Amino acid sequence: MTVTAAVAFVITWSSGFLIAAFGTVDVSALTLLVWRFVPLAVVLLAVVIATGAARGVTPRELGTQAAIGLFAQFGYCAAVYGAVASGIATGTVALIDAVQPLVVAALVGPILGLRVRGAQWAGLALGALGVALVVHSQFGSSSAPPAAYLLPAAAMVCLVIGTLLQRRSPVRTGMLVTLTVHLTVTAVLLLGIALVTGDLVPPAAPGFWLAVVLAAVFPTLAAYGLYWWLLRRVGITALQALLFLIAPATALAGALLLGEPLTALTVIGFALCGGGVAVVLAGERQERAEATAEEPESSGERRTAQGRTRTARPSNATTSPSCS
């Protein structure tokens, strides 16, 4: 189930870049984002109220999730759509976004108090090299102004902040409530901005509404939900390694659907990305195996003490949102 979820995560997350490219050809990125989030937020709010899923959730927990959603959903999506709409190739946006794993790996120790092994650093570096090769030919091929390249960088920073906030928080709201809060905060902010800028009224073109539905289902519900579920399931380091596959998948789809270049260098990059992911995941498996072998069954206190010095790995004590 975890492998299937990881594959689905890569595919659905990559689809967000492509949908943004198709959906913003004849309409502003803000208009597409508003109609992607507002109806979905209304539906989820109705479901939460009808099911009582938010029963027992405190204002503090709602505030924490709202702060996470501000960065991981609103900030990330607005910057990505702005970058694609400005003319930056989807593979290039995905490349800059894929730098996130190295940033998180550099911060995971001092911020979360966890250790990242040398083999995991090597895997992350190998994956970064693969990503760079995959989209190397796309740099300089767009008409976007240089300042526009700050947008995908801002998207990466927002997702890093949201991820680290979530990992440091003791809040454990259910997945439905978590998604609802994140989407509602994003919808309210987008709606307010669209009202001020005059980008609220949608076009009547069927293609626009198809893009809205696809964006709501795949990169929003599916990919975003899988992101937090996998964060709980496989740990932060393994999840960041999986993010390296987003750029190759986007570049491949861009070649097939948008006519972006796909060369032998791209194939080599694919292989390096896959190798980097394999190294990191192997390190995670070895870490869990060693931890299991060292922890005596009868000593709960020792297990707790050892767990605090281990590399980021899945455990029942994770601070990720519950998938129940």
From TrEMBL:
Domain EamA: 3-135, 148-281
Superkingdom field: Bacteria
Keywords: Membrane, Transmembrane, Transmembrane helix
Membrane topology annotation: Multi-pass membrane protein
Membrane-spanning residues: 33-54, 66-88, 94-114, 121-141, 147-165, 177-196, 208-231, 238-258, 264-282
Subcellular location: Membrane
Endpoints of the signal sequence: none
Listed Polar residues bias regions: 314-324
Chief subcellular location: membrane
Keyword Cell membrane: no
InterPro entries membership: AA-Vitamin_Transporters, EamA_dom, EmrE-like
UniProt cross-references to SUPFAM superfamilies, sorted A to Z: Multidrug resistance efflux transporter EmrE
Residues covered by region (Disordered): 288-324
PANTHER family xref list: EAMA DOMAIN-CONTAINING PROTEIN, INNER MEMBRANE TRANSPORTER
Annotated family: Belongs to the EamA transporter family.
The protein, known as: DMT family transporter
